[in-house]
Amino acid sequence: MSAHIPTLKQLHYLVSLKEQGHFGRAADSCYVTQSTLSAGIRELESLIGVTLVERTRRVVRFTALGDRIVEKAYRVLREAEELAALAQASGKPLTGDLRMSVIPTIAPFLLPRLLPHLRREKPELKLYLREETSQSAMESLRHGHVDCVLMALPYATGEVERAHLFDDRLYVAFPKDDPRDPPPSIRPEMIDEARLLLLEDGHCLKDHALAACNRPELRAEATMMGTSLHTLVQMVDNGLGLTILPEMAIMGGILEHTQISARPLSAINAAREIALVWRKGSPRDKEFNMLSDILRDLSQDMAPVAAE
After folding, report:
1. Helix 285-299 vs helix 107-121: angle between axes, to the nearest 10 degrees?
2. Which GO terms describe its molecular function (predicted)?
């Protein structure tokens, strides 16, 4: 009976081909030759008696059944990895490899402050980091490419475990010579929608900022053009408008060497929740809760934003 069961290697080849969309790139990602990967997938097709991939000179196209089997393969490979994780979790916690995705509006501001402390706290932990948007990070988590995600909520995460770390306040950033001379805090109705610059679609901070303002016309009128917070800051510094920044970015020094001021956004939901999320039923559940405790404690040591 075991002779008719696909091997993990065959499933890995199939998943890699789906992700890469090209036999050569898939082979490179698996560290095998293209002929080895192609032969492995043909063996899989022969084993189960169906065609999974339609091959042409230029296009790799999965059949409908092929797509369904790829989704199953993701789960099988993830479960296989969690077998090893289960054994690791039974030993000393927070040791060995840990793969974490971090969203771009967190990674450059929080990690430089937290990672040195984490290395001192858990020197045997080998942390592998991926910076990707929330959507990509959740896909990586679902497919087993990462073990946990450091992200901002609210976001549609699906069925996951999560641990609250801290709230990250939102600030309105504008040129220091702005003639409007804003007060110590800025209410949403004071924001000129024609001057508001936001991150492009795909960044959850844009949705958090718009939700906090609770002004439907901002979504239609705001200029969504920034590919990163640093890009937005440069545009504001050049007098092109104003933007909304998270507190951690300001604490991380994003406004240094600029002529930009920042005031707290005064609104009911003027903050995003920073959280660690992981798959339900993960054998490393206790470890992720321990890691959350460490990250939460370390974040409390960071200095607050200096008042202007």
Report:
1. 110
2. DNA binding; DNA-binding transcription factor activity
